[in-house]
Request: fold
Amino acid sequence: MPRLTGDRAARLMRRAARRRADGSRGSRARWAWRRLVRACAAGDPVAQETVRKAELTDLDVLELLAAAPAQPADRAAYLTLLGQREQRQAMDPDGTLLGLAYWAATGETRGRLRAVLAAEGDGEAVRAVVGAEQRDRVATMSYDELDHLGRRLAEHGRYGELRRLALDLPLAKAVATARLLPPGERAEGSGGCLAALAAGSPQELRAVQARLPHQKVIRHRKGSAQVSFSPDQAELAISVTELPPETVMPRVLTETVRLATGDSVLRHSQQGRTPVHVHSILHLGDEILRMESPIAYPGDVLVRLHPRHESIPVQGPRLLSELGRASTGAVAVTVAGLVFVDRETIRRRHVAVPRIAEVIAAYGEREQGLGCHLATLPEHGLLAVSLSDQGHVLVLDEDGTVLHDEQRAVYVSTFLAPDRLAVIPETAYYPPNHRYEIWTLTESGPTRREEGTPRSWAALDELRGFELDAEFARWLVGPLHEPLYYTAAPESLRNADRRLLAASPFGDAFVTWRSARPLHLRHYNGDRRARRWGRLEVHTPYLPAAREALEQPLLHATPRHWHHIRRLRTKIGDPAVREALGLLDHALTDRFGADIALGGGPSPTAGPHDLALGPDRTE
Reply:
């Protein structure tokens, strides 16, 4: 729409001001007024100034409001330029939106806003406009506000301001802003930092940040529990056996706990005359399954607890292992092979594996006591079955094809890659210096074996970044009945009355129970683990610090903060979090890579790139 001249706008306003005896406009007056309203909505400065100086009825104001921009900041500027101070203050009492609109506006619009505010004598709005470009204020803007500001700066070609804006924001917002820059504008004066930021995904970074916990320790209810982390470590499924004070009959509760907030949601509650022994629980992300058996009856029952409660009928050979993740859902080992429970199905799908049946048959009448551990690599459709008492490790695919058959007694194993296993050799007892082994499987020729680190927190650090089997990760830092007294353990875990129940796949979260006196259940002869009664706790020693680092504006970063990020990244195993911290490290390296950080307090051992300064600041 072409802009109006001053004379043209004045003529339209005079024509629109003509009224009938009843106060309504005639057809020509209505046409003139609609023409002015459309021009105001299009941002015509002459039309807006003409309307601002005119005397308007309430109906006129409503029509102008109906034509206002949908974006809140643009709407605040629009109302200000039309002289609708009360309407603008109602939607933007502190002037924040007006300040945002002022920064995003062109030089001409800024001048008009200053003139209108000066004429109105609105001191609060003037202060908001003046402070709009303060860097601290910008760093705390919402995603929607920053998106609006960034797009306006890009539309007006103000790339220098857009570059400075991106380098002041928290990481996810910085990535979103850097992506608004044309590729040719990203390299100027940034040493490749803006190009690296623009290659990131703001949606993925926001999702990673949203699932990180705020606090190091989440305390939960008392009881005996089986637990399972979701694949992304954002949630924990807990099946708790507890004893209500009004009865001696245990109650089994299944809950999910969000690690980011500590909030729990009850998924299922079960209490009856027949106690239930919970063997294992498995969180698949979109589904939760539980393996259980009534104490008085044989057979292992599989139940889907989320998204709806469904019993999966007992069918086929007896189960040997706990549940594991498969590419199609869940899997377990049976005395005749494998059994799958595919997503959204209520039937068991059996796959015969003759080699497993042969090994089981060789065990004879002692089959009931056969130890079996299952490790899986769902993305490659691989399984490792450890039959410790018989000294066999079978690596097979989900079709039941045996790919490797190792004659070795192994307690537990985990995949490091499709052709690499970390295993814990079976021994009569497990001394503190007991080491894990790494097996490299070859298509032809013997398996190559290497010794790993003795079980310790250092061993867990050594395997940081691999998605470990939960039982393997727990074994690395100590058996269930040993207290977490190791000095190398994270501080929140060092407690003589605390026992480790489970570790997350990437070793970033730990579930413990604080031991209490044995609970004597005279009328309950069920799961012996129910006698290990204590308060459950979820520990995430380093993830809250990662969340804090990702939320902090780059504007406030210091060399000390940069070094903290680099150390923190080595303590976290989750690949998505490590990648986010790596991008943050890249941005801070560009800013502080040539700086020298001066530290205080006790002097650590100097490294090859350190300088020691005396009290007079001389070398």
